[in-house]
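Subject: Fumarylacetoacetate hydrolase family protein structure
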Amino acid sequence: MTYAFTPAPVSTVAIADSDARIPVRRIFCIGRNYAAHAVEMGKDPDRDPPFFFLKPADAVVEDEATIPYPPQTENFHYEAELVAVIGTGGKNIAEEDALDHVWGYAVGNDLTRRDLQLKAREQGRPWDLGKGFDLSAPIAPVHPVAKAGHPSKGFIRLTVNGEVKQEADLSELIWSIPEMISILSHSMELRPGDLIMTGTPAGVGPLVEGDTCVVSIEGLGDLTTKIGPKE
């Protein structure tokens, strides 16, 4: 096949204790999946039907990376998240079978241009520019299910310059990972390399130039991201 220009390289995330890597196909994110975070965002914490949005695959960022403060925002936020990695695809996956489709789990950070997101929300427009910008998806190395199991409880914590900003338990998810997988698969076919960022606890807040942000999840280790100056 002849291309009009060189295809973009495949975006990948690391695997813990391995030289192999996981090709990233899509990054799904779920909105307001911890009750306390729904409240702080001015929304009802009841178990309303979940909603999802996407980040591009090439938004992924390695652990320990320094990223520039993004353009067009004055309110750049962190969001600690557990990431589920799909290893076996499928359509119309039953909830009771959903975990069989997970290859592993990782620590993630759903970086957000909050001012752009909120403006879009107020105008009834998509969140793409607030959520899907360059370098907006730091993800630590993935831990295979064979080693990490399926985390359904345990702490999720985020610090900025050593100060705790977010802290909760994975058991507080409104929509569980099996439920998320099943719901998504009834809307579109899931395939290997699809990543699901499973929501963030309360305590979201701003990052500024010079900050060091660390997300930690029990059993999965840490994800460190440093914020550099604007380019």
